[in-house]
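User: Fold this; tokens only.

Assistant: Input:
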Amino acid sequence: MRPVPRSNYFTFRIFSILCLLLLPPLAAAQSTVDYCEPSDAVKEDIRKVNHVNYENLPFATRRERQIAMLQELLKKYPGDFHVQRRYQDARRSGLLVDWAPLAADYRAQMEKNPRDPVAVYLYSRLLIGRNTKETIELSNKLIQLSPDFPWAHLQLAEIYDYPTLKDSTKSVEHLKQWMSKCPKSLDALRLISRAGNKNLMTSAAQSLRSRLESSTAIDDLAYWDQLWTLEFKIKPVPEHEQLRKQIAADLTRIRAGDLDSQERLEALQTGYKQLGDKAGQRFVEEEFLRRMPKSSAARRVVQSRFFDEHKYPKFESSDEEKQAFHKAVVQVTSEWLKRWPDDELTLSNRVRSLMAVAESTNEDVEAAYKDFARVHDGQTSYSIPPLENTVARVYLKRGFHLEAVPAILQKGIDEIDRLEKHRNPSDVFPRNEEMEGANSRFIRMDSWPM
């Protein structure tokens, strides 16, 4: 092999060094990823997704809209951890999510990128409650694989707070690790509040108060309630009166801001509840009704006030009292539905009261039930026995649509079967084998005579 001339050697060496300098510093680039908090731009876009929760939409419609918005954000911010995590949360929301294909999707992503901490984490968090031991194994491997990735610590802190895996020492240790890596993050506040570690709670409360007192961000308003809860836990009882004065001062500051913000009104509402200030709570309710008359918050105020004034009849109440109550419900729900046509609770109350009112027509009952069925998909709520059983019983009593009764009853059975299928016994809570499948058995026993 011919030796390289000395002048060429130096030229080659300088060229090599320049090439190394021009290469992107991979390790440094990876370490600059902020896993703790999203950028301001991402935070604002995710806030828009979350704000859909304030719209009066059936759950399925709201979920589809948020998933579509997040899919656009995945294109806008390819690879962004915070968008990916929020997207997964949207996909797994609801009571009837088919878990198996969701888990298979994320498992495939992990197997394709076994050293990607985000891929490993997103798959592992889906296993909590189903195969939590595997989540623990993957989280511990993740800590070894990517020491700078903080979410494995928070995940383990949460796992060790569950009843069947309770280990307060491990939970607190992982919380400390999380806080050392993400001191400004607010994601661990609820867990810290439950941890019972006074030093951890004190440090979190001091940091949170400093942040909130200087913050102008709308999203931060939701954390005032957690701050006050932490401070009540930290302070001894003799100091609670002074703390209430502090909360009153905080509320004065919050109230001075823009009251057209639902987030601000909700912060005020929780603060006045902390103080037991009825006048303050009433003020917030009136602001909701005046500024946001079609909001879900206004609906809750209206419904709560009505049922405070119209108590559900007791078993021993007279027939006249029962009829008067149900007639009032029928009348008021017809008004509510003009503002909130897709509110499931309003429709459910209307159906039940129409069935109870002696003078109601079969056609009115049927129309109300169809409206309820239109918005009810079992994703967020269900009742035992289901409304279908009550409707079928009334149809039988009135001799109305008898041919439809079996299908109506089967619909209630199918819903609870789907719910129990998707709510397999969790491995993070104590099992009660006698109660497993009890709802399904009860509904079948209730349906069979009909």
